[in-house]
C-alpha cells in the first residue's frame, strides 16, 4: 500500500477555517483548534438565527395588523379579521396585510370592511 501524505490537503483545510474566522476576537481567529470551535459555534448560531428570523417577522406583521385594526376601530380584533379572511377566501398573507396597514391605510380599510364580520 502506498503511503498518502496529507500535508497539502490538511494545510488547505486549516487555511480555509482560519480565513473564515478572520475578524473573530483574540485567539479565535489565530489558533486553529479555537478557530474551528468558534466557526462551528457561529454556524450553529446562524442556523438558529435563520429559524428565529421567520418567527420574529411573523410577530411583527401580526402586531402591525393589530395596530392598524385598532386605529380603525378599537373593538376590532386580529383573530376575527383572519377568520373572516378565511371564510371569504381572501388570499392575502400577513406580510402584505402588514404593509397595507402601515403604508396604505385606505386599501387596508377596504380589505377590513370586505372581510371583517359585523
Question: What labels would you give this structure?
Answer:
118 residues; mainly alpha; c-terminal domain of poly(a) binding protein
What integer is the average pLDDT?
94
The CATH architecture classification is: Orthogonal Bundle
Coarse shape? rod-shaped
Task: State the CATH superfamily name.
Answer: Ribosomal protein L20, C-terminal domain
Structural overview:
- This protein has one domain (7-115): Ribosomal protein L20, C-terminal domain (c-terminal domain of poly(a) binding protein, Orthogonal Bundle).
- It is 73% helix and 0% strand.
- It is built from five helices and no strands.
- It has helices spanning 7-20, 32-72, 78-87, 94-103, 105-115.
- Helix 1 (7-20) packs parallel to helix 2 and helix 2 packs across helix 4.
- The N and C termini lie far apart (83 Å).
Quick recap:
The chain is mostly helical.
Write the layout of secondary structure elements.
Elements: H1 7-20, H2 32-72, H3 78-87, H4 94-103, H5 105-115
